[in-house]
């Protein structure tokens, strides 16, 4: 827990062989919640963790926050051990489905978390004003949190995560259970944070939203990272070629063009016919990857 | 160090605020009603007043016994129930993650929670003591009025200096019985016992997986703590514990489980026996040492707990 000397690194978050095992004493088995994760997230990046429930996303976040101890491997936050106070001064966290203290109102909640981070006096007052404005919770300042809607709770959760102006934010399912409008507001907030230069690591099931905000993603399945990369590289299909035909072509013209293509004598048509790599949606990629991993696991049930 | 203290204070205040806003103090209303009710009932058993049967003495003793007993009992339930749900509730609501993800040590979180309950207990004991003092004052008024009524049956008694002296003596005796400074000593010892109970419950809750387990186990330790010294004396007197191993076992148990029976010294105070402050301070010292050990072990266990 005490601070230790940082390791020189250019990454905001980094893991090497990070593993978490839970012994199931009664069943005489070991559950591998996370299996040798290697991950590097650069400063200023928005990084999405996606995968089915129980695939290791939340475990990764808890390990990166130093809330649980790894069974193997190592995690670093800006080169610091995640459970050091110095690392925690630089991170903010919004847990999945947070409740917070229902007896406190919005202002009191931010004041409480601010004091825990050592923010006090006029600086804290100013920070509360800024954050209430940022998350749009003017109507929740005096209301106890027990009367908040799901979307409001997520927004106050984001505000408390930002109270000490951290460089790195961990958001665990920030849009879980939130209506489409609230979800869009949270997406916009993440984009604003990105513009502010913050690093954001978040997990989500809303793949369309991940596609909208993430620079890079990692797909998890059964405790393993099975795919990682930029959205551009991951969603580009390299094994085939896509032909984009301008919409103003008549059906007859399209037929003639296809026929021509079939004969392999392709005419560029003055640049109207473009050849590009086809794109998958993130959802297609996700389902394909997770299904493949599940098929593999069913053939080789070694993961206990 | 100072920032660490600030974080502990922030968590303590939040714990106290939670208890107050969740109407824990309503328990005190029930306490006051029970106390006043008991006082009224005992007053109706017979007219208070100084007489040869010492009825007033018995009534005052009853109110004192009942008051201190009720402070101890209500305080015990507040201490046990508040402490038992401290950590499980934080885990269930996931609020613990938001706190421990901040620059807060686990030990600071735990100590903050503990001192929050101690503050709550201090507030409750202070308010219950006020209600207790008010009830005693009411009894004193009734006693003096009854004495005056008894003297008024003698016509023109104020003119007789001997009777006036007797009256003043009687009133002074009533006041002396009611305004017993040793009651403060008794309340402080009751508070110390409650804080020890809180420490035991906190230690168990650091590894327990449910509030029920914490409540039941703390209650068992509390009971064993009350019987321990008697059992030890009986064991040693009967010669059963004559071997080194048996003596070591008895010694180990008495180290492991606090001797709650030593706090029955409060009964001596209520019985009207003088208990010197030095004795009370010794007991408070014992409670302090025990508490430091309890908190130290709690911090170590909680540091290793998977959350």
Can you describe this structure in just a few lines?
The complex is a heterodimer of chains A (304) and B (307). In chain A, 36% of the residues lie in helices and 23% in strands.
> Quaternary state, please?
heterodimer
Radius of gyration of chain B: 24 Å
Determine the N-to-C terminus distance of chain A.
31 Å
The biggest sheet of chain B amounts to: none
Order of helices and strands of chain A: EEEHEHEHHHEHEHEEHEHEH
Class by helix and strand content of chain A? Answer: alpha/beta
Main sheet: strand order of chain A? 5-6-7-3-8-9
Question: In total, how many beta strands of chain A?
Answer: 11
- Helix percent of chain A reads 25-40%
Average pLDDT level of chain B: 86
CATH topology category name of the largest domain in chain A: Rossmann fold
What does this 3D model show about the protein?
The complex is a heterodimer of chains A (304) and B (307). The model of chain A has no long low-confidence stretch (mean pLDDT 84). The radius of gyration of chain A is 23 Å and the shape is globular. Chain A folds into two domains: 222 residues, 3-Layer(aba) Sandwich (Rossmann fold), CATH 3.40.50.300; 35 residues, no CATH class. In chain A, the strands form three sheets. In chain A, strands 5-6-7-3-8-9 form a six-stranded mixed β-sheet, with helices on both faces. Chain A has a three-stranded antiparallel β-sheet with strand order 2-1-4. In chain A, a hairpin with a 4-residue loop joins β1 and β2. Chain A is of the alpha/beta class. Helix content of chain A is 36%, strand content 23%. With 307 residues, chain B is mainly alpha-helical. Chain B has one domain. The relative contact order of chain B is 0.12. Chain B starts with a helix and ends with a helix. Chains A and B meet through α2, β5, α3 and α5 of A and α1 and α5 of B.
